[in-house]
Amino acid sequence: MTTRLTAHFALEELVATQHRRIDNRPPPDVVETLRTTAVQMEEVRKLLGDRVITVSSGYRCPALNRAVGGARRSAHLTGHAVDFNCYGFGRPKAVCRVLAASSLAFDQLIEEGTWIHISFDPRMRRQVLTKRPAGGYLLGLHTNEGDIQ
User: Fold this and answer.
1) Whole-number pLDDT of residue 144
2) Band (148; pLDDT cuts 50, 70, 90)
3) Most exposed residue of 73, 81, 94, 106, measured as fewest CB within 10 angstroms of its CB?
């Protein structure tokens, strides 16, 4: 059975994991947060020409977050973050350019190299970051050479 949160996003895709031994079922308060996150992801989808979004990570329980090496205070832990791609639109940097230039409310938008991380943490800082190949993050969208775009 599929639990639709919005027209294009289901609870099951926002909690899916390859770690079969970890129970990643969210508590009720996180399900409500995921419902709000899904509404925000509908806005992302509209900005990307209503193209399909492929979610690779949404909610992570603490055990899953540790298993994947997530940040200790990751927005994934509360259901506020989504890692995704929009292959029909283009590469992650192109997706990030559109989202960063829009009026979309978000907390963090991170170009991770091969995917996009977006969080809707209530702080809504509109922080845009680029993952450095050697590790760490740079403020803003950067080319591989480190130049800001």
Assistant:
1) 57
2) low
3) 73
Q: Are 67 and 19 in contact (CB under 8 A)?
A: yes
Average pLDDT over residues 74-92: 97
The four Cα atoms 79, 80, 84, 88 give a dihedral, to 10 degrees, of 120
Degrees to nearest 5, angle at CA 38 with 138 and 64: 65
CA 18 to chain centre: 17
Please state, in angstroms and rounded to a whole number, the distance separating the CA atoms of residues 58 and 33. Answer: 11
Q: What torsion, rounded to 10 degrees, do the Cα atoms 64, 5, 52, 139 define?
A: -50
User: For 107-124, how does the pLDDT look when each residue is reduced to its tens digit (9 = 90+)?
Assistant: 999 999 999 999 999 999
- Give the three-class secondary structure for 30: helix
Cα–Cα distance between 103 and 84 in angstroms, integer? Answer: 19
